Amino acid sequence: MHTDLDAFRRPKDQHAALVEIAELAEGRIIITRDKQTIVGYVTFHYPDEMERWSEGGMKDLVELGAIEVANDYRAYGIGKQMLQTAFADEQLENAIVFATEYYWHWDLDGSGLNVWEYRSMMEKLMKSVDMVWFATDDPEICSHPANCLMVRVGCKVPLSSIERFDRVRFKQRFMY
Fold first, then answer.
1. 5-9, 27-31, 135-139: which has the minimum mean pLDDT?
2. Pfam families per the record (predicted)?
3. What is the pTM of this model?
């Protein structure tokens, strides 16, 4: 692991987390290497059972858990290429893929961007694979206006799954 891959945990611990995800039946990892060093990765897995997103018990709801590229490699479009690889050939058309974007995971110092510029960059990156902003009342996402929920609903996802996801997104919604 490149030493700059530390947005979520220390590189050694992140490597262990990638191994754990690879061992999951639904786990998917796309990596970019420079020789033998991992310089970027994107992960997909079911939502953690301790999170709200698992409450629907949906087998077609997949979390884009993390995307990270080492500082020296960020100008090459590696993040976008990894995402496009992950979604290529209709691989995720039978799933709702979501990403929870929290500003506290963003490399504001290293990027030189402010929180709104970074949010714009992340939205643009996610839009490259047709993920769009979805509203939610999730407390963590609502805790800061820059946080957001990005979602892509595959074209083979049944309406019943979309409706179930809506009920997970909005737990405080009241019908009048």
1. 5-9
2. Acetyltransf_1
3. 0.91
